[in-house]
Design a protein that fits this description.
Length: 155
């Protein structure tokens, strides 16, 4: 298969997958607001997601492509909070372009230049996952430190 066909196929799948997630969230969103809080679902999480999208909408969709769990739920929450569809289209397409081209072409050209890298693919994948989760880990660590300081100041 040519690299062009592969990139076009992955790009189409990435864009259509996020459109499907957005549509599902858009349709299922009203039901979520009617549900009572449970152990897993809390209405406040949907409100927090809405505030997050109003603040970081495009960035969340683009960066979210590189984070395995976020990649699945970002377009769904964008639909739930009814992120402006024109903005969603822009960020969906640009995020898919960046994601597909960076990962596919870097793998293609690294494989061409360093054929022995095939023996280390597991390490490369783990490294990419660690790098993708770093921003989230740093944010959570900062929040934890801030909460701890606030708690100490209260006492």
């Amino acid at each position: 298969m040519s690299i062009y066909t592969l990139c076009l196929g992955l790009l189409g799948a990435g864009i259509l997958g996020n459109f499907t997630g957005y549509w599902f969230g858009y349709r299922a969103g009203p039901m979520l607001f009617k549900r009572k809080d449970s152990i897993i679902f809390k209405r406040k999480y949907v409100v927090m997601a809405e505030e997050f999208y109003h603040k970081y909408g495009g960035t969340a969709l683009i960066i979210g492509r590189f984070v395995p769990i976020v990649r699945t739920f970002a377009p769904i929450f964008a639909g739930v909070v009814k992120l402006d569809f024109k903005k969603f289209v822009l960020y969906n397409v640009s995020g898919a372009l960046i994601w597909v081209l960076i990962l596919t072409l870097s793998g293609y050209f690294l494989g061409m230049e360093f054929p022995w890298i095939i023996h280390y693919v597991e390490y490369v994948v783990v490294g990419m996952i660690v790098v993708a989760f770093l921003p989230i880990a740093i944010t959570l660590l900062k929040k934890r430190i801030k909460d701890k300081r606030n708690k100490q100041n209260i006492q």
